[in-house]
Amino acid sequence: MLAQRKEIEGVLLVDKPTDHTSHDVVARLRGKLKMKRIGHAGTLDPAATGLLVMLVGKATKVSQYLMSVEKEYTGTIKLGEVTNTQDADGEVMETKPVPELSEAEIKAALETFKGDQYQTPPMFSAIKIDGVPLYKKARKGEEVEREPRFIRVMQYDLTRWESPELDFLVRSSKGTYVRTLAHDLGTKLGCGAHLKSLRRTASGDLRVEESLPLETLLEMPLPELHERLRPVHEVAPRIAL
Q1: Domains of the chain with bracketed CATH
Q2: pTM of the model
Q3: Active-site residue list
Q4: 49-56 and 193-203 as β-strands: parallel, antiparallel, unpaired?
């Protein structure tokens, strides 16, 4: 009688490309590893790049723990244009002239977003109301009341200012919509804004520098890919499988 093959398990750090949903990454890894028990610890929008923490086998049991850790992002905000999705994928709904702003004025505005607060999720999101994702209602032109969610912004720093665009680094709690931070910054500055690009650089103690591009991982021989799996006890030491 043949011995049953032991299911592989562990945490795989993927640098997600653009034009891939988080589910797309799951599906492609399932095809590569020939197994269904694969998930992730926090989605990224299709246009966003960066760290996607993939959970393979029994590692899926720690998804809630890994989803709860703080996240770090870098990105670019474009002032003067408001979109219906709050990012560059949406339709421009309003344009306004961008005032002459100094770096000090931008930094002062960013500073007001730091700390504990309530954030209203955007209509174009996967949050469900009465079992229907908000983005489906938004595509029909519907606007419904959303319950604000508690978030914490630990860091929101300006890294480049060249009107009408600015680069930033933000560290925040789970559930924070960075595109909403961008949209709200535009409101505060009086000229509107949307998120032009976004990259997740860290999830808890895990850094994007430790990851590999999705295509690189998919082209690896299986034994080599298995070696990239990190033991769960290294990533979530307080959780027992």
Answers
A1: 10-68+204-235 (3.30.2350.10), 71-121+148-203 (3.30.2350.10)
A2: 0.91
A3: 45
A4: parallel
- What gap in Å lies between CA 60 and CA 11, rounded to an integer? 9
Angle between helices 178-189 and 103-111 (to 10 degrees): 120
Structure-derived torsion over alpha carbons of residues 70, 72, 76, 82, reported in degrees to the nearest 10: -10
Instruction: Print burial letters for 155-168: b (CB count within 10 Å at least 16), e (below 16).
Output: ebebeebeebbbbb
d(CA 75, CA 173): 17
**For 119-177, what is each residue's pLDDT tens digit?**
998 887 777 777 777 778 778 787 888 889 999 999 999 999 999 999 999 999 999 99
Residue type, 224: E
CB 125 within 8 Å of CB 147 = no
